[in-house]
Amino acid sequence: MENNQQLTELLALDLGVNIINRRPYAKEVFKWQDMDLLPHSSTDTLLCEIYEWNGRNWRTTNNNLIGYLFGSDQLSTFKNQLMNVQKFPALIPDFEFTKDSMIEFGLALPSLFNIGIKGDIKNAKDFSVKVNGVTKSRITNIDSPGIEILRKYSEFTQNESRSYRKNIKFNYLSTSLFYAESVEINLEKDAGVNLDVSFQTQDVEVKANVDTDTKKNFVLKYTGNQAPFAAKFTKGKDFNIS
Fold first, then answer.
1. How far from chain centre, in Å, is Cα 77?
2. Confidence band, pLDDT 50/70/90 cuts, at residue 108
3. Number of helices and strands (H, E) in the chain?
4. How many Å apart are CA 168 and CA 237, to the nearest integer?
5. Among positive and negative, which fits the CA dihedral 204, 208, 214, 215?
6. pLDDT exceeding 70 applies to what percent of the chain?
7. What is the SS3 assignment for 71?
8. Are 95 and 183 in contact (CB under 8 A)?
9. Which pLDDT score, from 0 to 100, does residue 236 have?
10. Distance from first CA to last CA of the chain, Å, rounded?
Protein backbone atom coordinates (compact mmCIF):
# COMPACT_ATOMS: atom_id res chain seq x y z
CA MET A 1 0.00 0.00 0.00
CA GLU A 2 1.18 3.48 -0.78
CA ASN A 3 2.38 5.47 2.20
CA ASN A 4 1.61 9.06 3.13
CA GLN A 5 4.65 10.45 1.34
CA GLN A 6 3.85 8.66 -1.91
CA LEU A 7 0.22 9.71 -1.77
CA THR A 8 1.19 13.30 -0.99
CA GLU A 9 3.54 13.36 -3.97
CA LEU A 10 0.79 11.97 -6.22
CA LEU A 11 -1.68 14.58 -4.98
CA ALA A 12 0.86 17.38 -5.52
CA LEU A 13 1.61 16.16 -9.03
CA ASP A 14 -2.05 15.85 -10.01
CA LEU A 15 -2.96 19.29 -8.63
CA GLY A 16 0.25 21.03 -9.65
CA VAL A 17 1.00 22.24 -6.12
CA ASN A 18 4.17 22.27 -4.04
CA ILE A 19 3.93 20.40 -0.73
CA ILE A 20 7.14 20.45 1.30
CA ASN A 21 7.49 19.79 5.04
CA ARG A 22 3.76 19.90 5.67
CA ARG A 23 0.65 17.81 5.42
CA PRO A 24 -1.67 18.40 2.48
CA TYR A 25 -4.37 20.89 3.34
CA ALA A 26 -7.99 19.75 3.48
CA LYS A 27 -8.86 21.91 0.46
CA GLU A 28 -6.25 20.10 -1.62
CA VAL A 29 -7.43 16.64 -0.58
CA PHE A 30 -11.08 17.48 -1.13
CA LYS A 31 -10.38 18.85 -4.60
CA TRP A 32 -8.20 15.85 -5.50
CA GLN A 33 -10.83 13.33 -4.40
CA ASP A 34 -13.89 15.32 -5.53
CA MET A 35 -15.34 15.03 -2.02
CA ASP A 36 -17.28 17.45 0.17
CA LEU A 37 -17.78 17.99 3.89
CA LEU A 38 -21.06 16.68 5.16
CA PRO A 39 -23.41 19.34 6.57
CA HIS A 40 -23.94 17.11 9.60
CA SER A 41 -22.79 13.69 10.66
CA SER A 42 -23.75 10.98 13.10
CA THR A 43 -23.24 7.27 13.38
CA ASP A 44 -26.54 6.68 11.55
CA THR A 45 -25.50 8.73 8.48
CA LEU A 46 -25.84 6.24 5.64
CA LEU A 47 -24.85 5.83 2.04
CA CYS A 48 -27.59 6.88 -0.43
CA GLU A 49 -28.84 9.70 1.81
CA ILE A 50 -30.42 12.42 -0.34
CA TYR A 51 -29.02 15.98 -0.20
CA GLU A 52 -29.92 19.33 -1.70
CA TRP A 53 -27.38 21.88 -2.95
CA ASN A 54 -28.35 25.55 -2.72
CA GLY A 55 -25.34 26.86 -4.60
CA ARG A 56 -23.22 27.28 -1.48
CA ASN A 57 -24.10 24.58 1.03
CA TRP A 58 -25.28 21.01 1.27
CA ARG A 59 -28.44 20.24 3.20
CA THR A 60 -29.88 16.83 3.90
CA THR A 61 -33.49 16.12 2.94
CA ASN A 62 -33.59 13.59 5.80
CA ASN A 63 -34.55 10.97 3.25
CA ASN A 64 -32.66 7.98 1.94
CA LEU A 65 -32.97 6.51 -1.54
CA ILE A 66 -33.90 3.07 -0.24
CA GLY A 67 -37.03 4.56 1.34
CA TYR A 68 -38.36 5.20 -2.16
CA LEU A 69 -37.19 1.91 -3.64
CA PHE A 70 -38.22 -0.76 -1.17
CA GLY A 71 -41.36 -1.64 0.73
CA SER A 72 -41.51 -1.89 4.51
CA ASP A 73 -40.88 -5.63 4.34
CA GLN A 74 -37.44 -5.05 2.77
CA LEU A 75 -36.37 -1.72 4.27
CA SER A 76 -34.81 -3.03 7.45
CA THR A 77 -32.78 -5.56 5.48
CA PHE A 78 -31.34 -2.94 3.15
CA LYS A 79 -30.80 -0.44 5.96
CA ASN A 80 -28.74 -3.01 7.83
CA GLN A 81 -26.77 -3.76 4.67
CA LEU A 82 -26.01 -0.06 4.17
CA MET A 83 -24.94 0.24 7.81
CA ASN A 84 -22.52 -2.63 7.34
CA VAL A 85 -20.96 -1.77 3.98
CA GLN A 86 -17.28 -2.53 4.42
CA LYS A 87 -14.78 0.31 4.82
CA PHE A 88 -11.49 0.25 2.94
CA PRO A 89 -8.42 2.50 3.07
CA ALA A 90 -9.27 5.60 1.04
CA LEU A 91 -5.69 5.91 -0.30
CA ILE A 92 -5.48 9.58 0.47
CA PRO A 93 -2.72 11.06 2.64
CA ASP A 94 -3.28 12.21 6.19
CA PHE A 95 -4.19 15.88 5.96
CA GLU A 96 -4.90 18.99 8.00
CA PHE A 97 -7.63 21.55 8.54
CA THR A 98 -5.84 24.79 9.40
CA LYS A 99 -7.32 27.62 11.45
CA ASP A 100 -8.12 29.60 8.30
CA SER A 101 -9.83 26.68 6.60
CA MET A 102 -11.90 25.95 9.71
CA ILE A 103 -13.08 29.56 9.76
CA GLU A 104 -13.96 29.24 6.08
CA PHE A 105 -15.76 25.92 6.49
CA GLY A 106 -17.55 27.19 9.57
CA LEU A 107 -17.97 25.89 13.08
CA ALA A 108 -19.87 22.84 11.80
CA LEU A 109 -16.52 21.33 10.85
CA PRO A 110 -15.22 20.36 14.31
CA SER A 111 -18.63 18.92 15.23
CA LEU A 112 -18.19 16.37 12.44
CA PHE A 113 -15.43 14.86 14.57
CA ASN A 114 -17.43 15.22 17.81
CA ILE A 115 -15.28 18.19 18.83
CA GLY A 116 -16.94 21.05 20.64
CA ILE A 117 -15.59 24.60 20.62
CA LYS A 118 -16.25 27.22 23.26
CA GLY A 119 -15.42 30.72 22.05
CA ASP A 120 -14.35 32.17 18.69
CA ILE A 121 -11.55 30.30 16.94
CA LYS A 122 -10.53 33.58 15.29
CA ASN A 123 -9.05 34.45 18.69
CA ALA A 124 -6.69 31.46 18.62
CA LYS A 125 -2.99 31.97 17.92
CA ASP A 126 -3.07 28.59 16.17
CA PHE A 127 -5.74 25.96 15.75
CA SER A 128 -5.65 22.85 13.59
CA VAL A 129 -7.31 19.47 13.19
CA LYS A 130 -5.13 16.79 11.64
CA VAL A 131 -7.01 13.86 10.12
CA ASN A 132 -5.39 10.42 10.12
CA GLY A 133 -6.13 7.03 8.59
CA VAL A 134 -9.03 7.88 6.30
CA THR A 135 -11.24 5.01 5.19
CA LYS A 136 -14.07 4.94 2.69
CA SER A 137 -17.28 3.03 2.10
CA ARG A 138 -19.07 3.23 -1.23
CA ILE A 139 -21.92 1.96 -3.36
CA THR A 140 -20.83 -0.09 -6.37
CA ASN A 141 -22.56 -2.07 -9.10
CA ILE A 142 -20.57 -5.22 -8.30
CA ASP A 143 -21.32 -5.65 -4.58
CA SER A 144 -24.43 -5.89 -2.43
CA PRO A 145 -26.41 -3.86 -1.60
CA GLY A 146 -25.38 -1.70 -4.56
CA ILE A 147 -26.37 -4.32 -7.11
CA GLU A 148 -29.93 -4.53 -5.80
CA ILE A 149 -30.26 -0.78 -5.24
CA LEU A 150 -29.13 0.08 -8.77
CA ARG A 151 -31.43 -2.51 -10.30
CA LYS A 152 -34.40 -1.24 -8.30
CA TYR A 153 -33.46 2.37 -9.06
CA SER A 154 -33.61 1.69 -12.78
CA GLU A 155 -37.16 0.38 -12.35
CA PHE A 156 -38.09 3.31 -10.11
CA THR A 157 -37.03 5.96 -12.63
CA GLN A 158 -39.33 4.38 -15.18
CA ASN A 159 -42.29 3.27 -13.09
CA GLU A 160 -42.37 6.15 -10.56
CA SER A 161 -41.23 8.99 -12.80
CA ARG A 162 -43.15 11.71 -10.92
CA SER A 163 -41.64 10.82 -7.56
CA TYR A 164 -38.24 10.39 -9.19
CA ARG A 165 -38.31 13.89 -10.71
CA LYS A 166 -39.66 15.51 -7.53
CA ASN A 167 -37.42 13.89 -4.96
CA ILE A 168 -34.26 12.52 -6.54
CA LYS A 169 -33.43 13.49 -10.13
CA PHE A 170 -32.11 16.97 -9.34
CA ASN A 171 -30.88 16.24 -5.82
CA TYR A 172 -27.71 14.38 -4.82
CA LEU A 173 -26.94 10.98 -3.35
CA SER A 174 -24.06 10.18 -1.01
CA THR A 175 -22.37 7.41 -3.00
CA SER A 176 -19.18 7.36 -0.89
CA LEU A 177 -18.61 8.19 2.76
CA PHE A 178 -15.25 9.01 4.39
CA TYR A 179 -14.21 8.24 7.96
CA ALA A 180 -11.22 9.15 10.14
CA GLU A 181 -9.40 6.61 12.25
CA SER A 182 -8.16 9.42 14.48
CA VAL A 183 -7.77 13.18 14.63
CA GLU A 184 -5.24 15.39 16.40
CA ILE A 185 -6.41 18.72 17.81
CA ASN A 186 -3.83 21.45 18.38
CA LEU A 187 -4.85 24.72 20.05
CA GLU A 188 -2.64 27.63 21.06
CA LYS A 189 -4.00 30.83 22.58
CA ASP A 190 -2.93 33.75 24.70
CA ALA A 191 -3.57 33.60 28.43
CA GLY A 192 -7.00 34.90 29.35
CA VAL A 193 -8.56 34.22 25.93
CA ASN A 194 -11.94 32.53 26.36
CA LEU A 195 -11.46 29.60 24.01
CA ASP A 196 -11.55 25.89 24.73
CA VAL A 197 -12.25 22.53 23.13
CA SER A 198 -14.25 19.57 24.35
CA PHE A 199 -15.17 16.22 22.87
CA GLN A 200 -17.39 13.25 23.41
CA THR A 201 -15.61 10.31 24.96
CA GLN A 202 -18.03 7.53 24.01
CA ASP A 203 -16.20 5.16 21.66
CA VAL A 204 -13.22 7.53 21.68
CA GLU A 205 -9.77 6.91 23.11
CA VAL A 206 -8.27 10.23 24.21
CA LYS A 207 -4.55 10.88 24.51
CA ALA A 208 -3.66 14.24 26.05
CA ASN A 209 -0.16 15.25 24.96
CA VAL A 210 -0.47 18.83 26.25
CA ASP A 211 -3.27 20.40 28.30
CA THR A 212 -2.48 23.83 29.74
CA ASP A 213 -4.26 27.19 29.82
CA THR A 214 -2.53 28.33 26.63
CA LYS A 215 -1.70 25.10 24.77
CA LYS A 216 -3.70 21.95 24.14
CA ASN A 217 -2.91 18.89 22.05
CA PHE A 218 -5.22 15.91 22.04
CA VAL A 219 -5.38 12.80 19.87
CA LEU A 220 -8.83 11.25 19.52
CA LYS A 221 -8.95 7.68 18.25
CA TYR A 222 -12.39 6.40 17.28
CA THR A 223 -12.96 2.86 18.50
CA GLY A 224 -16.66 2.17 17.92
CA ASN A 225 -19.16 2.77 15.15
CA GLN A 226 -17.73 5.78 13.35
CA ALA A 227 -19.50 8.86 12.03
CA PRO A 228 -18.42 9.96 8.53
CA PHE A 229 -17.08 13.48 8.01
CA ALA A 230 -17.23 13.77 4.22
CA ALA A 231 -18.94 12.31 1.18
CA LYS A 232 -18.80 12.04 -2.57
CA PHE A 233 -22.12 13.21 -3.98
CA THR A 234 -23.67 12.06 -7.26
CA LYS A 235 -26.60 13.85 -8.87
CA GLY A 236 -29.69 11.66 -8.99
CA LYS A 237 -29.95 11.75 -12.77
CA ASP A 238 -26.29 10.69 -13.03
CA PHE A 239 -26.56 7.77 -10.63
CA ASN A 240 -25.28 4.72 -12.49
CA ILE A 241 -28.41 2.85 -13.50
CA SER A 242 -26.87 0.78 -16.28
1. 24
2. low
3. 8, 12
4. 8
5. negative
6. 96
7. coil
8. no
9. 95
10. 31
Helices marked H in the chain? 4-15, 26-33, 65-69, 72-83, 99-105, 108-111, 146-159, 161-167
Tens digit of each residue's pLDDT (9 = 90 or more) over 196-226: 888 877 888 999 999 999 999 999 999 878 8
3-state secondary structure (DSSP) of residue 169: coil
The set of residues, in sequence order, having a beta carbon less than 8 Å from that of 242 and lying 6+ positions away, is 141
The C-alpha atoms of residue 43 and residue 37 are separated, in whole angstroms, by 15
Nearest residue to 130 via CA among 87, 181, 178, 197: 181
Sign of the alpha-carbon dihedral angle for 35, 38, 43, 46: negative
Does pTM surpass 0.90? yes
**Banded pLDDT at 111 (limits 50, 70, 90):** confident
Per-residue confidence (pLDDT) for residue 242, from 0 to 100: 46
Residue 101 contacts by C-beta under 8 Å, 6 or more apart in sequence?
25, 26, 27
Q: What is the pLDDT of residues 65-97, one digit of tens each?
A: 999 999 989 999 999 999 999 999 999 999 999
Smallest CA-to-CA distance from 171 within 231, 230, 241, 235 is with: 235
H-only helix segments in 71-144: 72-83, 99-105, 108-111
How confident is the model over 159-175, as a mean pLDDT?
Answer: 95
In contact, 132 and 203? CB cutoff 8 Å: no
Smallest Cα–Cα separation from 37: which of 227, 231, 235?
231
Phi and psi at 2, nearest 5°, equal: -65, 145
Whole-angstrom CA distances from 226 to 77, 137, 174, 182, 221 are 20, 12, 16, 10, 10
Distance of CA 170 to the CA centre of its chain: 22
